[in-house]
Amino acid sequence: MNIFILSNYVAWMLIAVFTASLMVDFLKNEITNKKDTSNKRRCSDEER
Amino acid sequence: MKSDKELSDKKLGPMHVWALGVGIVLVGEFMGWNFTIARGGSIGSIIAIWTMSIMYIAIVMMTNEMSSVMPESGGQYAMAKYLLGPLAAFNVGLMAVLEYAMLEAADVVVIGEILQSLNPDLSSLPFIILSLVFLTWMNYRGVYATLTLNFIITAVAFVSVLVLLFSTSFYDPQNTLIKLEQMTNGLPYGFLGVLAAMQFAIWFFLGIEGTAMATTECRSAERSMPLGSILGLLTLLIGATITWYVCSGLIDAEALGASPYPLYEAAVATGKLYAVIALFVGTLLSCLASANGCINDASRAWSALSRDGILPDVFSKIHPRYNTPYRSILFLMPISIAFAFTGMLDQIITFSIFSALLIYMFTAIMMLRFRKMYPLNTIDRGYIAPIHPIPAVITLILASLAIVGMSFTYDVNILLGIIFYSLASVWFIIRRYKFINKDEFFNKGIAKWGMPHHILYCTPEMRHEKNDRT
């Protein structure tokens, strides 16, 4: 296998790494966001 | 979770503003501009380049004045919001997003093509996607690191142009490789050729106005914005002239007018390996810097549209740790990949340029209105554009001329562009207009700067009439 074909595979692997990093952080944020929203709603219900 | 009002990391300085402006544009020196020579000849090309540079000087001056008073994310969109109302603001915002998202797609396609030209075994597709994903990842993780990276790669790309210039020994009449008299072809199509060349002359400067998108993230917007963008424009003017001079002196006008990578071919013409390597690296880095700046600007514009209710508010969320409009950044990535997959590079670029020209016309109209609403000495300005209204009038005339020149070849594209923005406006009026508090748009401006001058100094009857209209 020559270096150019190998570079293609390395590029695909890097795409997978960066995409996974983005997705993990994004989902973590969204879950935290949802939890915060539901906590706030519960607090305001209890206050009432 | 933070709201968009907190999109203000306040870390950027003039260096970052310079990197954002020049980074987006510098790619135009490496490709695209040389079609001015095919349309207008060598002299027609330099006339068109310098003429369009006048328009950009005017645009930078106007944008600096307005953004020093309205330091909000969204750049020209934020200005349109206060000065022209929701419908115009929606159009300006959409034009900005499409201008940058399409330019970004074109940049990464070129990166893929350049790499593939090294060896047929190297596939362009993974590198196109990798460039977009990596730059999106950088933008997602914070503006400071992103624009610092942009500064470095833009500076290296610019230095590569200087390396090429000095490799020609232009300073030594005995050994110089520059042969302007033999290579150039004058003005073969007269001034009509200059008109046709204008749309490609824009390549040297297209996107410099995007510096306004970083206003809220500057440490001192009043200082950083004018300094960064004026230095950026000077860099581009010098770069454009050097590029024209070196390429026109090394490559025959006919070949130069059709070249896909003129600066790289000029480096090959010198026969010096170090110049060829420098220009190969410079071309790649300029594409990366441009795509990087485009992601930054498009996401800021999209997020600003969402923050004000013009688009659904899901895109306005700011990352709690990185302080970036992360949803907008991620949302625009597949859109740019889709544009890149169309493979219609010239169509994508034409639409991007057309959108930019419309933004310039709106900017001129906004400036005229801004000075009417708030004349000098009525509000504090961080920067005052000189010789008003001449910059606005010059911009309107030259942007119109560039669209006329564009219509010689891309008349259908222009027509489709007009239809697209008209349909988008209809969609906005039917689906989104009801969600917008139009009073708030106007009142936000009044709360910041007081009642506009032309309303303050009119009779009560006139004011009533104006209030009824708003």
Secondary structure elements and their pairing?
The complex is a heterodimer of chains A (about 50) and B (about 475).
Chain A: H1 3-47
Chain B: H1 14-25, H2 27-30, H3 35-69, H4 76-83, H5 86-118, H6 124-140, H7 143-167, H8 180-183, H9 190-201, H10 221-250, H11 253-256, H12 262-270, H13 273-307, H14 326-342, H15 345-373, H16 390-432, H17 438-449, H18 453-456, H19 460-469
Give structural notes.
The complex is a heterodimer of chains A (48) and B (470). With 48 residues, chain A is mainly α. Chain A has one domain (1-48). Chain A has one helix at 3-47. The longest helix of chain A has 45 residues, at 3-47. Chain B is an all-alpha fold and 470 residues long. Chain B has one domain: Up-down Bundle (Amino acid/polyamine transporter I). Helix content of chain B is 73%, strand content 0%. Chain B contains 19 helices and no strands. The longest helix of chain B is centred in the C-terminal third of the chain and has 43 residues, at 390-432. The model of chain B is unreliable at 1-6 (pLDDT under 50). At the A-B interface, helix 1 of A face helix 6 of B.
